[in-house]
Amino acid sequence: MTEMTETTPSWLSPEELESTRARMPILYVDAVPVRVDDTGVVTHVGLLLRIGSDGTVSRALVSGRVLHHERVRDALMRHLEKDLGPTALPRVPASPQPFTIAEYFPTQGITPYHDPRQHAVSLAYVVPVVGDCRPRQDALDLVWFTPEEAASPLVQQEMAGGQGVLLKQALAYVGCLS
User: Fold this and answer.
1) What are the CA-CA distances from residue 124 to residues 3, 72, 73, 173 (Å)?
2) What is the average per-residue pLDDT within 90-112?
3) Most exposed among 70, 73, 78, 87, judged by the fewest C-beta atoms under 10 Å?
């Protein structure tokens, strides 16, 4: 007997997604877009300006779900293009390695990361971009900050769900924080 498997990428209907979110963790990718100088040192960090479902405005990283039967690298590229535009030219390696794994919980206080909709596990990456970035989809704007500005309390308080913590981890990972 031959086992049949679905091999085309797909996602769930809104009702199926809500039901699944209530029962199991969902895999995400988070990307911290950066500009680097000729020696590879991070000079700027790109943060999106978004309006949340509750109407609040916040700064955010590039983030999104990994589809069924989608490689993590492909999900990263898809979300970077979706949020930064097709001419952002991200430099994602052939075999990307996350700088950390963030677990978002619907209950606050379990980890620094919070998502009231679900338990999500996110692989987090720092991704250099060399092209022209023009925010798309639900992003209102993209602002480039120096690493010092991005780590400042002012910018950190503008980030929701613990993404400010994730941003500081990314900055430490690339040697911009001591």
Assistant:
1) 34, 11, 12, 11
2) 95
3) 87
Q: Which of 6-15, 60-69, 114-123 has the lowest mean pLDDT?
A: 6-15
Residue 70's contacts (CB-CB under 8 Å, 6 or more residues apart) are: 9, 78
Q: Classify burial at 165, counting beta carbons within 10 Å of its beta carbon; exposed 0-12, middle 13-18, buried 19 or more.
A: middle
The pTM of this model reads: 0.88
Which percentage of the chain shows pLDDT scores above 90?
76
Q: Is the dihedral of CA 28, 178, 96, 37 positive or negative?
A: positive
Residue 10: its pLDDT value, please? 58
Q: Mind giving me the DSSP string for 124-168? A: EEEEEB-S-----TTEEEEEEE-HHHHTSHHHHHTB-TTHHHHHH
Strands 100-104 and 120-128: antiparallel
Tell me, rounded to whole angstroms, the distance of Cα 88 from its chain centroid: 15
Could you give the C-alpha distances from 58 to 81, 98, 139, 148, 153, in angstroms and in order?
20, 24, 10, 19, 14
Q: How high does pLDDT run on average in the chain?
A: 90
Helices (H) and strands (E) in the chain, counts: 5, 7
**H or E segment to which residue 58 belongs:** strand 57-60
Closest CA to 35 of 25, 27, 44: 44
